[in-house]
């Protein structure tokens, strides 16, 4: 199987906040967070930002297919401070997703352990033997007989957590290439998952920073 080469993303990232220590940006869907291993996958959010902010450092990532809010550090001290906040789960994150079918419960929690599905990576799977604990809270924002819009709040930050957890309850995210059945995958041209809210402490001033960004779908 040939190695994946990301198509060029013409949409630009939007800078929502900038100071001497941190950037908050809205990453478009279809753009890698960091360069890939393949020589043709060098274009990425951090590569583009470093053209104007040479000291920019990645703190966390979004999947290429996911759009939304990301925090970027602008010096080593802020990178360390922000990384600690993520490590200790001090950063509050919320996502908006449109999923297949009607979710009957107004809100709930999904607690299923996740592990890498090595023969099929980058896919993840639910594994009760050696999977790492993973927890997602969800709330219905809108629903019809065919689809539901969910607010998702991950407590943990496992790879593909929101995609696997939604699929595990029978409601895969529309447009998901990895975990959606054919009808759900064909229902959208992109993955309908967007990082819509971020709350964190400024790495220098400790001021509470709160950002929201509406989903483009």
Number of helices: 4
Task: Note the gap between the termini.
Answer: 32 Å
Tell me the Rg in angstroms: 17 Å
Mean pLDDT: 96
> What is the overall silhouette?
globular
Helix content: 10-25%
The main pleated sheet reads as: 10 strands, mixed
Topology order in helix (H) and strand (E) letters: EEHEEHEEEEEEHHEE
Residue fraction in strands:
25-35%
Number of strands: 12
Low-pLDDT windows of residues: none
Task: State the secondary-structure class.
Answer: alpha+beta
Keywords for this structure?
alpha+beta; 217 residues; two-stranded antiparallel sheet; 10-stranded mixed beta sheet; 12 strands; 14% helix; single chain
Notes on the structure:
The chain is α+β, with helices and mostly antiparallel strands and 217 residues long. Helices cover 14% and strands 33% of the residues. It is built from four helices and twelve strands; from the N terminus they run E-E-H-E-E-H-E-E-E-E-E-E-H-H-E-E. Strands 1, 2, 3, 4, 5, 6, 9, 10, 11 and 12 form a ten-stranded mixed sheet that branches. Strand 3 and strand 4 form a beta hairpin. The longest helix has 12 residues. The mean pLDDT is 96.
């Amino acid at each position: 199987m040939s190695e994946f080469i990301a198509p060029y993303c013409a949409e630009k990232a939007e800078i929502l906040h900038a100071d001497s220590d941190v950037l908050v940006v809205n990453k478009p869907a279809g753009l890698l967070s960091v360069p890939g291993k393949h020589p043709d996958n060098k274009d990425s959010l951090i590569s583009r930002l470093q053209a104007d902010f040479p000291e920019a450092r990645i703190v966390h990532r979004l999947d290429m297919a996911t759009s939304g809010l990301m925090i970027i550090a602008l010096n080593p001290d802020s990178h360390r401070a922000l990384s600690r906040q993520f490590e200790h789960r001090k950063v509050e994150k919320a996502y908006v997703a449109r999923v297949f079918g009607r979710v009957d419960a107004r809100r709930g929690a999904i607690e299923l352990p996740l592990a890498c599905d090595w023969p099929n990576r980058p896919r993840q799977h639910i594994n009760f033997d050696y999977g790492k604990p993973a927890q997602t809270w969800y709330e219905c924002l809108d629903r019809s007989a065919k689809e539901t819009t969910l607010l998702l709040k991950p407590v943990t930050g496992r790879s593909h957590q929101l995609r696997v957890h939604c699929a595990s309850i029978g409601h895969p995210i529309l447009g998901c290439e990895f975990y959606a059945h054919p009808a759900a995958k064909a229902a959208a041209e992109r993955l309908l998952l967007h990082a819509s809210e971020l709350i964190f402490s400024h790495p220098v001033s400790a001021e509470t920073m709160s950002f929201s960004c509406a989903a483009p779908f």
